[in-house]
Amino acid sequence: MIVKDLSRAECLELVAASHTARLACSLDGQPYVVPITVAFDDSFLYSFSMPGQKVDWMRANPKVCVLIEDHRQRSEWRSVVVYGTFEELPDKIGFKRERDRAWEMLQQRANWWEPGGLKPVPGPMVSASTHLFYRIAIDRMTGRQAVDDQRG
Amino acid sequence: MIVKDLSRAECLELVAASHTARLACSLDGQPYVVPITVAFDDSFLYSFSMPGQKVDWMRANPKVCVLIEDHRQRSEWRSVVVYGTFEELPDKIGFKRERDRAWEMLQQRANWWEPGGLKPVPGPMVSASTHLFYRIAIDRMTGRQAVDDQRG
User: Fold this and answer.
1) How far apart are CA B52 and CA B46, in angstroms?
2) Which of A7, A34, A59, A141 is the best residue to mutate to test the B interface, defined by the most B CB atoms within 10 Å of its own CB?
3) Which conformational region is residue A108 in: left (phi greater than 0), alpha (psi within -120 to 50 degrees), or beta?
4) What's the rounded Cα separation, in Å, for the pair A31 and B86?
5) Rounded CA gap, B84 and B87, in Å?
6) What is the rounded CA–CA span in Å between residue B13 and residue A144?
7) What is the full per-residue pLDDT of chain A (152 aa) written as tens digits?
8) DSSP 8-state class, residue A51
9) Cβ proximity of B32 and B24 under 8 Å
10) How far is CA B151 from the centre of its chain?
11) Which residue from B143, B147, B134, B145 is spatially nearest to B12, judged by alpha carbons?
């Protein structure tokens, strides 16, 4: 088993192919990590969320970290750590193009509203209009790959 | 599809059954998230790491967050968010019992040295003695579960 750094092109390839990720944000020195659904475009990761702690914290501190992983089997994996900046895409004039782009990409994913889009509340399904769309501007990436060195 | 909060007992059940998790730490407002191997015992999550950014940051700011997930299928999942405090288990008198306990539990996992235990460096496998053992004291947990409401 050996571990190698991924090139920027290899990082981008994994990020572009991923539909789910883990997002870490922090406030006052307390980190918080949750699963999210993502879609990559250009130098941004697009996503959405119901209102809640994640959104509150990212509004207060837009520095985030996103972990993207690919496990082919237990002993072979690739992972990319993205350092980025949260950018809200509010339902206002001036953000329509980015919101439409986020919607277009995210709705291509099956069950796109999970896991970020549901809250543990009883009652009927909330409408999509209560969701917040946002994107993460990718500032920097690092990636690693573990491969079985018995394969040559 | 409905989402329910997990009880403390349900959170503990998931945490105890898990071998892998995602650990978030933060320093100066910048979060960082990586995959780790874990073993739960009593009110602690035990793990290990090679020296590096994760360890440096947790030494500087011991507040961490651990995400543990169980995906039975895409539409049914359980996840627990653990808020905890990093505690190093140094190779010194006074920590032998905790280090032995960590070693005992972690070596039961196949490939226990991954993904936290490998660095992308060429050359022979590093010895286990360079690994740092640590544990996370669980301060608080929250959990959620998504279930298919068509099943009744």
Assistant:
1) 18
2) A34
3) alpha
4) 12
5) 10
6) 31
7) 788 999 999 999 999 999 999 999 999 999 999 999 999 998 999 999 989 999 999 999 999 999 999 987 767 889 999 999 999 998 888 888 888 888 888 877 655 555 555 565 444 444 445 778 999 999 999 999 988 776 54
8) S
9) yes
10) 32
11) B143
Considering only CA atoms, which of A44, A60, A26 is closest in space to residue A133? A44
The SS3 of residue A147 is strand
Chain A positions in Cβ-Cβ contact with residue B74 (cut-off 8 Å): 110-111, 114
- B2 burial via Cβ count (<10 Å: 0-12, 13-18, 19+): middle
Joined together, the tokens standing for residue A10 give 């290899």
Helix then strand count (H, E) for chain A reads 3, 8
Amino acid letter, residue A123:
G
A78/B48 Cα distance (integer angstroms): 20
- This model of the complex carries an ipTM of 0.88
CB-nearest to A22 from B22, B25, B63 is B22
CA distance A108 to A46: 13
Domains located in chain A, CATH noted: 2-151 (2.30.110.10)
Distance CA A3, CA B140 (A): 34
Q: Where are the beta strands (DSSP E) in chain A?
A: 2-5, 20-27, 30-37, 39-41, 44-49, 63-73, 76-89, 132-147
The token duo for B18 is 């898990």
Closest residue in chain A to residue B126, using alpha carbons only: A2
C-alpha B60: how far from chain center: 18
